[in-house]
């Protein structure tokens, strides 16, 4: 029995990372007109993904986030999956606060942990979220917010719902099959719909600009990541595809461009006939 207990503890430590390795979390597939009648929709927040394991906050890569104790005080002892987000703050501002090795309590106080699932609870999505709702009824916590889920009558309502979010400056929407369990993989039961697709790439060289960008970075030459042997990523460039990104860089970023070898996130409309992203736009450097 003692050996079994130790073995189980080791397995749990391996599965959940303990801050050491990448977490296996729910990943969204793309909405491509699948029938979502009766599914639950919510706004897709442009925040930093975080996982509360019952003791500490972790990034999607399994790294410990140095949240001040005041932020996570009285969080539940069960796991939560969600986004660290603050309406009105740019992603870069949120990321800077979250990834700071020396947590700024004032900066963290602007954020809330917006929860979209309770991974280890049983039942459908609403049942799982109800576990947190009951906890908060007894232990109110201003730093925990349950993301509102709205039942969709049909696909037309979902498209209208998404369009209303984008019109207000939002990123897009998520729609989920209400009875599906929490899946630690890319799920066909959880879909995202955004105006632009986004993906990640590695910076392999920095190209000098011309004209008003003389002596500054004009563009970044990048190598695509992912998209290999993954049908859900068929709309992304294949792994190792080489392309340039010149749009989306601020003057500051052109002066101090992302380092060679860094991983960046970019958005694009679709793929060209050559398999390269059409109109790629720089979004951010991945820090997690």
TrEMBL record:
Protein name as catalogued: DNA ligase
UniProt cross-references to PANTHER family, sorted A to Z: DNA LIGASE, DNA LIGASE B
The reaction(s) this protein catalyses: ATP + (deoxyribonucleotide)n-3'-hydroxyl + 5'-phospho-(deoxyribonucleotide)m = (deoxyribonucleotide)n+m + AMP + diphosphate
Keyword entries, A-Z: DNA damage, DNA repair, DNA replication, Ligase, Signal
Database matches in InterPro entries: DNA_ligase_ATP-dep_cent, DNA_ligase_ATP-dep_CS, DNA_ligase_OB, NA-bd_OB-fold, NAD_dep_DNA_ligaseB
CDD domains, alphabetized: Adenylation_kDNA_ligase_like, OBF_kDNA_ligase_like
GO molecular function: ATP binding; DNA ligase (ATP) activity
Gene3D superfamilies (UniProt xref): 3.30.1490.70, DNA ligase/mRNA capping enzyme, Nucleic acid-binding proteins
Residues of the ATP-dependent DNA ligase family profile domain: 125-195
Pfam families on file: DNA_ligase_A_M (PF01068), DNA_ligase_OB_2 (PF14743)
Co-factor(s): a divalent metal cation
Gene Ontology biological process terms from the UniProt entry: DNA recombination; DNA repair; DNA replication
Record's signal peptide: 1-17
Stored NCBIfam families: PRK09125.1
């Amino acid at each position: 029995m003692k050996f079994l207990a130790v073995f189980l503890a080791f397995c749990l430590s391996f599965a959940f990372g303990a801050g050491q390795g990448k977490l296996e979390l729910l990943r969204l597939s793309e909405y491509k007109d699948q029938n979502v009648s009766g599914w639950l929709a919510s706004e897709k927040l442009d925040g930093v993904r975080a996982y509360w394991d019952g003791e500490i906050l972790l990034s999607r890569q399994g790294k410990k986030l140095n949240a001040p104790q005041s932020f996570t005080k009285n969080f539940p002892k069960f796991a939560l999956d969600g986004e660290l987000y603050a309406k009105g703050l740019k992603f870069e501002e949120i990321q800077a606060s979250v990834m700071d090795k020396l947590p700024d309590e004032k900066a963290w106080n602007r954020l809330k942990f917006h929860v979209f699932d309770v991974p280890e609870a049983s039942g459908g999505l609403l049942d799982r979220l109800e576990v947190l709702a009951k906890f908060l009824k007894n232990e109110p916590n201003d730093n925990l917010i349950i993301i509102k889920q709205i039942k969709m009558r049909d696909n037309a309502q979902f498209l209208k719902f998404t369009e209303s979010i984008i019109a207000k400056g939002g990123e897009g929407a998520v729609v989920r099959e209400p009875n599906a369990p929490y899946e630690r993989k890319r799920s066909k039961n959880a879909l995202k719909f955004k105006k632009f697709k986004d993906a990640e790439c590695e910076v392999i060289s920095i190209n000098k600009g011309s004209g008003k960008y003389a002596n500054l970075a004009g563009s970044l030459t990048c190598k695509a990541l992912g998209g290999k042997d993954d049908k859900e990523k068929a709309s992304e460039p294949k792994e190792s595809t080489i392309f340039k990104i010149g749009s989306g860089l601020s003057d500051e970023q052109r002066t101090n461009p992302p380092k060679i070898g860094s991983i960046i996130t970019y958005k694009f409309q679709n793929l060209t006939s050559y398999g390269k992203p059409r109109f790629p736009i720089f979004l951010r450097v991945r820090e997690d």
